[in-house]
Amino acid sequence: MTSQPSGPGPDPEHPGAGTETPPPPLRTLAEPVRGRLALAVGLQAVAALAGVVPFIAVSLIADRLTEGSPAAGDTLWPLVTLACAAGLLALVCGTAAGALAHVADNDLQLTLRRRLARHIGRLPLGRLTGRGTGEVKQAVQDDVSALHTLFAHTLLDVVAVLTAPVLALGYLFTVDWRLALVTVVPLVLGVLLFSRAMSGAAAQMAEFGAALGRISAAAVEFAAGIAVFKSFGRGRKAHERFVGATEGFADFFSGWVRATLVSSTAAVLVVAPAVVLLLLSVVGTVFVTNGWMTGAELVPFLLLGPAVAAPMGVVGPRIQQIRAGQAAAVRITELLATPALPEPTAPALPDGHHISMRGVSFSYDGRTDVLSGVDLDLAPGTVTALVGPSGSGKSTLASLLPRFHDVTAGKVTLGGADLRDIPATELYRRVGFVLQDVRLLRASVADNIRLGRPDATDEEVERCARAARIHDRVMALPDGYATQLGTAVTLSGGEAQRLSIARALLADAPVLVLDEATAYADPHSEALIQDALSALAAGRTLLVIAHRLSTIRSADRIVVLEDGRITEQGRHDDLLAAKGRYTTLWEAQRTAQPHRTAPAGGDRAADDIRQGSAR
Ligand code: ADP
């Protein structure tokens, strides 16, 4: 997902074609606080109008003073009082409008974040891995903040700068309609020039966003890949794409600036207060010297004239905020519209823990099947290993058990009940998972282990940590089980995996999906993980995504997947004897990693898993 550029166009001071009608997503999202926002807008309009009154009063005072009649002095105090009262009203209403908009926006943020959290909690887990996490962060944090800017700040700013000039201009027309018309000239010219500068802005903004997106993608690639590039002596290569993207952006941006420079600069100049003041002074002097108006009548034009064109300078930059708010509203609405994992209408409870897959097919995009026609049974208390080349569908098949995704065709049953008919809480009580990419919370070690069973005692937590071979490491941490993770202390990949195994042990789900860790360089860590896994396998139904065949030699069943289909299955020795695809994979790994299959290493681990499951 690319983030919506909230930055300016070629010139941040340049307005475009005026405020746009908010699209339905924005209006729909703001619905709960619409009344309060409308009231805030009303108050802000009153504040803006009241803010003009002191200027009108001052020009009237100037008028009275120049009249020189003795009675004129008596009429001054009411005007002074009016100016003060109006100033005070502007202050009170402006403050109230700001406070009200903030309170309304605060409620809106809370409501939206709650809705998002509730909805995200009901999304299929598969939707939230990888790309999904960035999308969720963007919606919950950045997009809701963009709406805050829009509703709590931009909206009132725009109301203020659009209202005040209306009263100012209205008053100026009552003083002298001819000079009032002259006052409108900079505004009209400004609008025309701005429109010209911003023509094609939508397409340019899209390109601006795309160019920024390319930079951030290249930056991520640069940061993530630098070690690999450097270790292969290609340090320069690492930043070539990044530099290319930034150069591309600079070219695009300077082209855009060049194309709009003249009209945008002219637009800024023509509405600048000093320029408007100069124009009115010159034309006004001509009027006064020709006796078409009095000097006192010129005063309100000099005081209020610059304010008439001023909105052009303020609305423009706000357009970016309005667009960013609109785009944020669209993204939030899309996320809220993502179909949640359907909860069963007629819930069923599993009878036992036998898992059966029948005619299972699955597709991520609705077109290409990643799994097709898979039939598989996992008998309670057995270890089944999924093997196959990368991309053959092992992770996808395993992810169907904890309902990361629902099957596209066929069905998966647990204890005779279709997974889709089992209420989510019941399913997760029975099916646990330990993934390679372990997510630890910013919480204490004990709370991280307790995740699946918050009421577990300290003794139970420690028992599981011991079984998962992580207890000694935890005791070496500064505060033992109370140590907060993610801040001062971070665990290595292998340690985090053992902690997640302790978590799964404590949660005690009878069925477990396990994505076997791929790479733990040091044999000690690997042996500890294997010990932890064998504790986990004891008495459970285990589905292991096996990346190293050595560790699953004694699994009850090895299932070979190729292109989403099961091509072979059986025990290790039988599969080797059959000299089929498994034999090829086995030989390939043995030559690539001879030490992995050496009896002293992998075999011990494999036997551990096996013995564990037989216990
Ligand atoms: P394996 O675990 O055997 O490496 P996977 O189950 O991860 O295989 O992937 C099987 C196929 O599905 C691959 O072609 C992969 O590109 C595709 N795939 C995996 N995850 C996703 C996803 N989230 N969205 C789209 N395609 C995916």
TrEMBL record:
SMART domains, alphabetized: AAA (SM00382)
Transmembrane domains' residue ranges: 37-57, 77-104, 155-173, 179-195, 266-292, 298-316
Ranges of compositional bias, category Basic and acidic residues: 604-615
Keywords assigned by UniProt, alphabetized: ATP-binding, Cell inner membrane, Cell membrane, Membrane, Nucleotide-binding, Transmembrane, Transmembrane helix, Transport
InterPro entries from the UniProt entry: AAA+_ATPase, ABC1_TM_dom, ABC1_TM_sf, ABC_transporter-like_ATP-bd, ABC_transporter-like_CS, P-loop_NTPase, Type_1_exporter
GO molecular function annotations of the record: ABC-type transporter activity; ATP binding; ATP hydrolysis activity; ATPase-coupled lipid transmembrane transporter activity
Domain of life: Bacteria
Subcellular compartments: Cell inner membrane
Region named Disordered: 1-29, 588-615
Name this polypeptide is given: ABC transporter ATP-binding protein
Organism: Streptomyces shenzhenensis
Lineage: Bacteria, Bacillati, Actinomycetota, Actinomycetes, Kitasatosporales
